[in-house]
Amino acid sequence: MAADTASRKPPTLPAPLRRMPTAELHLHIEGSLEPELIVRLAQRNGVTLPFASVEALRAAYAFTDLQSFLDLYYAGASVLLKEEDFFDMAWAYFERAAADNVVHAEIFFDPQTHTARGVPMAAVIQGLAHAARRAHAEYGIGSALILCFLRHLSEDEAFATLEAALPHRHHFIGVGLDSSERGHPPEKFTRVFARARELGLHCVAHAGEEGPAAYIETALDLLKVERVDHGVRCTESPALIERLARQRVPLTVCPLSNVKLCVYPDLAAHPLPALLDAGLCVTVNSDDPAYFGGYVVDNYLQLFAAHPRLGMQQARQLAFNSFEASFVDTAQKARWARELDAVIERLSG
Ligand code: ADE
Ligand code: ZN
């Protein structure tokens, strides 16, 4: 921040939170399917849903844990059949992301959820890639795709999925690991992550969302992940917190998701501020915004409202971390950091 900002009026927080540029690094594109779009695609594709209306679908979004959410999330994704469906879903996300000043999004997709229903891998990836090209052209939003393996399935199935995606290798930058965490530790996928690294893919994994802190350690040591998705249960191990801070391993934290899935009773109990204090590279993300009550700015606004001690400095740090933790080159990260400071400076004027 410029040296003379200290003499100016600090901007009241909601404005910077709404206006600052940020990168979103933890977003499941299937989790951005709003109920209205689910119902529209079901009608378009002749898919029968176990819900009579948009309202009935939304009313079912009362989750008790990760699995209770995943059951509904996979049911919602069943309406996606054709390339244009994947385009429409991703385009709707990019329109929403543009309104939130997202300048860059690294987007998860779950091919196995679709290929298991007979949808070709090409339809999935090409539909998403088409929307990404248009978002760059129309909104200037940069993006990249990360292919996630479903951890409740086998490592052999993950290998087959990676193989099937290789003709589209130029459309994705990395692999991730998602779905039911408990009972499916990172070590189940050691070999397929080694193969992904050989292919030059970035590696990330969900760990320490519902699973124990030990899963964060094995994701780092065995899968050699560069970022940890969620990772909030690191709070159970002071030694791990110290390691994450020292190695500056980014955590892609999703506050509204953690409350909706009952990891914490409310946002006031969320450990993100403490992790920031401990020097970790934490970032704010929306996870599955259509299901958890908000996109990335909603996550910032509600988190800051629940923790009045969070101020401008923390807002800037979180946005800065999102750039630092992204998989873009250092020159681009520096450009975004300058843009961020320029926005904060303008709002302080
Ligand atoms: N797939 C979509 N959202 C997820 C989450 N929060 N955890 C694990 N897998 C997911
Ligand atoms: Zn997630």
Index terms:
single chain; alpha/beta; 8-stranded parallel β-sheet; 17 helices; binds adenine; binds zinc ion
Report on the structure:
The structure is a single chain. This protein is of the alpha/beta class. The protein has a single domain, classed as Alpha-Beta Barrel (TIM Barrel), CATH 3.20.20. It has 17 helices and eight strands. Strands 1-2-3-4-5-6-7-8 form an eight-stranded parallel sheet. Strand 5, helix 10 and strand 6 form a beta-alpha-beta unit. Helix 5 packs parallel to helix 7 (121-139) and helix 16 runs antiparallel to helix 17 (330-348).
Order of helices and strands: HEHHHHEHHEHEHEHEHEHHEHHHH
Q: What level of helicity do the residues show? A: 40-55%
* Head-to-tail CA distance between termini: 13 Å
Under CATH at level 1, the class stands as Alpha Beta
- Class of secondary structure makeup: alpha/beta
Name the assembly state: single chain
Largest sheet: 8 strands, parallel
What is the CATH fold-level name? TIM Barrel
Number of helices: 17
